[in-house]
Specification:
With about 260 residues, the protein is of the alpha/beta class. Helices cover about 55% and strands about 15% of the residues. The N terminus and C terminus are likely disordered. The strands form two sheets. Strands 5-6-4-7-8 form a five-stranded parallel sheet, sandwiched between helices. The longest helix is centred in the C-terminal third of the chain and has 25 residues. It is built from eleven helices and eight strands. It folds into two domains: about 80 residues, no CATH class; about 160 residues, P-loop containing nucleotide triphosphate hydrolases (Rossmann fold, 3-Layer(aba) Sandwich), CATH 3.40.50. The site of adenosine-5'-diphosphate has 15 residues, from helix 3 and helix 10. One of its GO terms (cellular component) is cytoplasm. It is found in: Cytoplasm; Nucleus. It holds the Pfam family ADK. Its EC number is 2.7.4.14.
Length: about 260
């Protein structure tokens, strides 16, 4: 099971020659490192880190995929779209392909076991440690199955809140040849979304993990609301760089521990 544990970079700091005579700034640097990594996620049984997970919720056409692209560009998270994984099963004619196609055509939700296993495979085969899981969980059943099978909780849950009229307009103009982008299926999808996704939204709201974004406006305006949600996860590293600006040759990337080590020595 994945679970959060406290961890720190103290072994790196103490093995560094310069750490024996820590200046004030360096001491502060150490503190920041410890604070930032106190919430680092790891898989204690194997000593490996467990991932930083963001779930992306919102009705069909609310702009989830569009905003995910921008989040990936800016923050380097790995994008996993539940819908894309299901469509890939259809395209590859796997044993579940036909069943998935029929459910999607009818605006229905694919059994959680199927979707979660696809996500699990991607999570486990990826080298990344930070994921953006788009279009999931769509139901309480999805959510519970993910917890049971993958054994992880999201760190952040984004909800793109969009009026139905706007979602219909966008989906009918999406023009990607999808079997579910037609008015008949769209009406069914909206009903299912309202009935089954709302409890998921409420669940994460009560857990204090939900970030509701007004999904009406230009793509850039909407991204302006998304940006500050992820920035704190990077800020720690910006602080590190400020403290060590004279020693850092370049700006290091979020979670690049090796680079931090280089800066220290
Ligand atoms: N802010 C926006 N305003 C207008 N159209 C948008 C906006 N964001 C996305 N779109 C368009 O709406 C359609 C649905 O967006 P998409 O990102 O695919 O939504 P979702 O992944 O939630 O179904 C796409 O054609 C996309 O280009
Ligand atoms: N968690 C999920 C995600 C998608 N599906 C199915 C049912 C959805 O209507 C389709 C398409 O999902 P997708 O997220 O690509 O759709 P939108 O981007 O919201 O328009 O896939 C599912 O059954 N379970």
């Amino acid at each position: 099971m994945w679970r959060r544990v406290a961890s720190s970079l103290s072994p790196i700091i103490s093995s560094s020659p310069s750490s024996r005579s820590l200046s004030r700034n360096q001491a502060a640097f150490g503190l920041i490192i410890r604070e930032s990594f106190a919430t680092e996620i790891s898989k204690p049984e194997e000593g490996a880190k467990s991932p930083f997970i963001t779930f992306v919720l919102g009705g069909p056409g609310s702009g989830k995929g569009t905003q995910c692209e921008k989040i990936v560009e800016t923050f380097g998270l790995t994008h996993l779209s539940a819908g894309d994984l299901l469509r890939r099963e259809i395209a590859m004619h796997t044993k579940n392909g036909d069943m998935i196609l029929n459910l999607i055509k009818d605006g229905k939700i694919v059994p959680s076991e199927v979707t979660v296993k696809l996500l699990q495979k991607e999570l486990e085969s990826s080298n990344s440690s930070k994921f953006l899981i788009d279009g999931f969980p769509r139901t309480e059943e999805n959510r519970v199955a993910f917890e049971r099978i993958v054994g992880a909780d999201p760190d952040v849950v984004l909800f793109f809140d969009c009026p139905e009229e706007e979602m219909v307009t966008r989906v009918l103009n999406r023009n990607q040849g999808r079997v579910d982008d037609n008015i008949t299926t769209m009406k069914k999808r909206l009903k299912i979304f309202e009935a089954l996704n709302r409890p998921v939204i409420d669940y994460y709201k009560n857990k204090g993990k939900l970030y509701t974004i007004n999904a009406v406006g230009t793509v850039d305006d909407i991204f302006k609301q998304v940006l500050p949600i992820f920035t704190p996860f990077q800020e720690v590293y910006t602080n590190l760089c400020l403290h060590f600006s004279s020693k850092c040759l370049s700006f290091f990337h979020y979670s690049d521990i090796r680079h931090i080590h280089l800066c220290l020595t």
